[in-house]
Amino acid sequence: MALNPTLARVTDRIVARSVALRRPYLERMARARAAGTVRAHLSCGNQAHAYAAMPVDDKAALVKGGAGNLGIITAYNDMLSAHQPYESYPDLIRAAARTAGGTAQVAGGVPAMCDGVTQGQAGMELSLFSRDAIAMAAGIALSHNTFDSTVYLGVCDKIVPGLVIAAAAFGHMPAVFVPAGPMASGIANDEKSKVRQLFATGQCGRDKLMEAEMAAYHGPGTCTFYGTANTNQMLMEFMGLHLPGSSFVNPNTPLRDALTVEAARRALAISALGNDYTPVCDVLDERAFVNGIVGLNATGGSTNLLIHMIAMARAAGIVLDWQDFADLSEVTPLMARVYPNGLADVNHFHAAGGLGFMIGELLEAGLLHPDTRTVAGEGLARYTREPKLIDGALVWSEGTSASLNPKVLRPAGEPFQPTGGLKRLQGNLGTGVMKVSAVAPERHVVEAPARVFADQEAVKQAFRAGEFTGDTVVVVRFQGPKANGMPELHSLTPLLAVLQDKGLKVALVTDGRMSGASGKVPAAIHVSPEALDGGPLARLRDGDLVRVDAIAGTIDVLTAGALERENAEPDLDGNEFGVGRELFGLFRRQVSAAEHGASPLFG
Questions:
Q1: What distances in angstroms separate CA 592 from CA 201, 286, 533, 587, one per listed residue?
Q2: Is beta strand 373-374 parallel, antiparallel or unpaired with respect to 377-378?
Q3: Per residue in 425-484, pLDDT tens?
Q4: Which stretches of the chain score pLDDT less than 70?
């Protein structure tokens, strides 16, 4: 099938836009590759330090110089359900490496915080910046220059983007990303949401809320809704950094362990010591990022990736912008309904045919680049296959050619809606984005007086006081990366949903973020420039008429003279200290705008 012309045009535009960064990046990677296996250039003392704690046989293999050494970067901790399964992975990987004639070492660990724990709390102000701290920590781990290839163990919101940024920095080496898989299905996500709304309106107690939450988040693995963590897993498969079909295999199963072993074997096989050298700089090209954007739209994925993908691409010398996402959204069918864009969870999605079915359909429709390099080999068609254990051996067989549950997953030619789940908004209030896949069509346009707040707690107080009695555009400003690290405002979702269910027209406008789990309330988020950086949101006042239009793709204040006012001055003293915020002042001062990736590394 010929490439869709919009897909081809957007890709060409990205290539042209990126030349000034991509060419020198690839030249740096070529020089690093030409230097050879860096371990060979270390002094005897350097090498002795690097091998001191290894088993005797592993030491001997490395001293002889022929064995490939695999570096493990792990985000393991046992507080995050998604990362707890990684506790056993290093042993599996080391054993697999030895069987393949190589060695493996944990090069280093990276921090991994849980947005589910910090939602609505001060710690959420570190969440976005943790991505860049993760990239830096992984860079420190790999700076020892003793590795021929790498495997990355990470799943959740900022962890995978941070690891991809690090992998791009060491792009002359191969990088295989190894997932942990989703937890088994618990309480239905819509039931959990109902209990949250009941609690918000005082119709049930905290005991019922706690019971529902613990029934939803109940075991090892990622949360089962389609938020940022599972969007990350989709992205790694569409971009060719996972093994095919590995994203949504449950933890602690024989198939999961077999895939981990194979990931280690494959990472060594594609090092420069073998005949199938596949540096990650060649995997992470413009086509791979376009494929990732298509996957994001086709699945109705998390809006957080509109920031993360820009930063990830920049690390590989590629320049994306939100218009690329918007243009691809216009030609990408929405093929999945997974909560919050439906009632199913990712286990149901995987059982219905999952990513393999979706990739096959999009390839057939000309909506993916088929000729990308991947860690599994040449061509994205490999990712239409699914892994199976047959008589104890891991094999890949052809995936399903039809959806096994059309309520969850549909063919590209019969989608839930003809366009993707993401919309770029632009107007006199700046540039923002909206996830529209879960928003009812009749709510795509909201025009109403504004209520302006400086933080989410003030919104909650107004809600508890019964102040929202008519149609309202809730504006929460001074929530951008420079102001306070751009926290997610997901704890507002139940409150705004209650107002919406009462029949009010409600929208949120903010220079902050919303969770990947947010959905049915129209939310214009990531508004740039942010209020602290002179953005128009700083000039809004209560009562200003604001129009949020996801159909036309606009976000405007309609009140005459509103933008001629002086900017409001925020009181940010409370955001400077506590729960580690004082350690990230440099990041807040250095960070780029949300539309440029909100990164202090690529200002």
A1: 38, 22, 11, 9
A2: antiparallel
A3: 999 999 999 988 888 999 999 999 999 999 999 999 999 999 999 999 999 999 999 999
A4: 36-40, 65, 189, 516-518, 603
**Does the annotation place 223 within a ligand binding site?**
yes
Assess contact for 196 and 494: CB atoms under 8 A: yes
156 among the known binding-site residues? yes
Cis peptide before 570 (omega within 30 of 0): no
Q: What is the dihedral of CA 297, 300, 304, 305, to 10 degrees?
A: -30
Dist. CA 598–CA 592, nearest whole Å: 5
Give residue 218's pLDDT: 73
Spatial separation of the C-alpha atoms in residues 311 and 601, rounded to whole Å: 9
Q: How far is it, in rounded angstroms, from Cα 530 to Cα 183?
A: 37
Provide the token pair at 2.
């010929």
| Confidence (pLDDT) at 78 | 93
Tokens of 489: 């405002």
Cβ atoms within 10 Å of 255's Cβ, excluding its own = 16
Q: Please state whether beta strands 523-528 and 430-435 pair in parallel, antiparallel, or not at all (unpaired).
A: antiparallel
pLDDT for 337 equals 94
Candidates 113, 318, 317, 345; CA nearest to 227 is: 345
Helices (H), 491-558: 493-501
Contacts for 507 with CB less than 8 Å, ≥ 6 apart? 443, 446, 448, 472, 473, 474, 521, 522, 523, 524, 546, 548
Please tell me the distance from the alpha carbon of residue 447 to that of residue 505, in angstroms, as a whole number: 8
User: How far from 457 is each of 95, 196, 408, 506, CA to CA, in Å?
Assistant: 50, 17, 36, 18
How far apart CA 143 and CA 137 sit, in angstroms, is 10
Q: How far apart are CA 198 and CA 462, in angstroms?
A: 18
160 within 8 A of 190, measured Cβ to Cβ: no
Q: The dihedral of CA 171, 173, 174, 180: what is its sign?
A: negative
Give the residue carrying structure tokens 């992984």.
138
CA 83/CA 594 separation, integer angstroms: 27
**Residue 364, CA distances (Å) to 290, 357, 367, 401, 476 in order:** 16, 11, 8, 11, 43
What are the C-alpha distances in Å from 226 to residues 84, 157, 180, 344? 19, 11, 15, 9
Place of tokens 């296959």: 385
User: Which one-letter amino acid corresponds to residue 465?
Assistant: A
Distance in angstroms (rounded) separating the CA atoms of residues 283 and 47: 30
Strand partners, 388: 395
**Selection from 419, 432, 439, 443 nearest residue 519 by Cα:** 439
How many secondary structure helices (H) and strands (E) does the chain include? 21, 16
